[in-house]
Amino acid sequence: MSAVALHGRLIDRLPTIRGSYTENFNLARLMWFKVGGSAEIMFEPADLADLRFFLAERPRDIPITAIGIGSNLLVRDGGVAGVVIRLGRAFGEISIKDGTVSAGAAALSINVAREAQKNGRTGLEFLSGIPGAIGGALRMNAGAYGREIRDVVIRAHAIDPAGVLNVLQNEALGFSYRHSGVPEDWIFVGADLGTEPGDPETIAGKMANIGAARSDTQPVRTQTGGSTFKNPDGGKAWELIDRAGCRGLRLGGAQISEQHCNFLINTGSASAADLEALGELVRQRVQERCGVELEWEIRRIGEPVPGGTA
């Protein structure tokens, strides 16, 4: 029994908010992998003030987990204890002023790129090739096609565990390869991105090329979670996976993509345990055959089913 359960029904201990609480929320329906257990409580704040109030007033013994749209996330089959926070429509606004694109954490990266294109602003085309939303891109310094989010962020906005809104300039974000130095328990709520003037048709052409390249090289129409492992120094994860003989490898309902072997796929019957175990098998084989220890890029949260594997 969890420490939270000892105090009785969790939802009765939470502050009164203007958003919504949902008990035993099925997280699998949000995940791109379409697997995973439930959130003990799902909290969707009405707006920024609602989120800040919740964080300031919540009991401090309750675990808090923030998620995005589920594109680069694996929720284990036993689910997530405590409160899972998901930012909704109120955090998805996009605006442009004086060449600066302001985007909420829930704004899809591709929509940010499209809005910049419509307004004749260049520099954000690479975002059209990144599945997910701006909050996740900030958390992991997402990148594609030669650029990363750190190349365009002017400042980001994040809420700390006490509910305080912090404005962080680029140099304070501690960006490195697929990493942000902002504490894990801070929640990104938006960012201001720099752009340059450009021709809308030329920008649209660049985005079309990115879309075609993704379709040609990645399993974009499958139940997947994006790139599974980070590229090691001086190498490519997919090349090491291929050298280790793992292209197309299967375990239960999970498979390493034949098209791009740094992608895990749910073939339709996988559990989260299948996907994670296959990923660990790939890491083991790459270590044994190539002498390189791959690091997970996909974020994994929650607990396994009792008696299962993590």
In the CATH scheme, the class of the largest domain would be: Alpha Beta
Percent helix, as a range, is: 10-25%
Shape: globular
Q: What is the C-alpha radius of gyration, as a whole number of Å?
A: 20 Å
Overall pLDDT confidence: 95
Query: How many structural domains can be distinguished in the coordinates?
Result: 3
User: Which parts are unreliable, with pLDDT below 50 for 5 consecutive residues or more?
Assistant: 1-7
Itemize the secondary structure elements and their pairings.
Elements: E1 20-26, E2 38-44, H1 48-57, E3 64-67, E4 73-75, E5 80-86, E6 94-97, E7 100-104, H2 109-118, E8 121-122, H3 134-140, E9 143-144, E10 147-148, E11 153-159, E12 165-169, E13 187-194, E14 196-197, H4 200-217, E15 223-227, H5 237-243, E16 250-251, E17 254-256, E18 263-266, H6 272-290, E19 299-301
Parallel strand pairs: 2-5, 3-5, 4-19
Antiparallel strand pairs: 1-2, 6-7, 7-13, 8-14, 9-10, 11-12, 11-13, 15-18, 16-17, 17-18
Helix pairs in contact: 2-4
Description:
The chain has helices at residues 48-57, 109-118, 134-140, 200-217, 237-243, 272-290, and strands at 20-26, 38-44, 64-67, 73-75, 80-86, 94-97, 100-104, 121-122, 143-144, 147-148, 153-159, 165-169, 187-194, 196-197, 223-227, 250-251, 254-256, 263-266, 299-301. With 310 residues, it is of the alpha+beta class. It folds into three domains: 5-86, 2-Layer Sandwich (Uridine Diphospho-n-acetylenolpyruvylglucosamine Reductase, domain 2); 92-203, Uridine Diphospho-n-acetylenolpyruvylglucosamine Reductase, domain 3 (2-Layer Sandwich), CATH 3.30.465; 219-294, UDP-N-acetylenolpyruvoylglucosamine reductase, C-terminal domain (Uridine Diphospho-n-acetylenolpyruvylglucosamine Reductase, domain 1, Alpha-Beta Complex), CATH 3.90.78. Strand 11 (153-159) and strand 12 form a beta hairpin. Helix 2 packs antiparallel against helix 4 (200-217). The radius of gyration is 20 Å and the shape is globular.
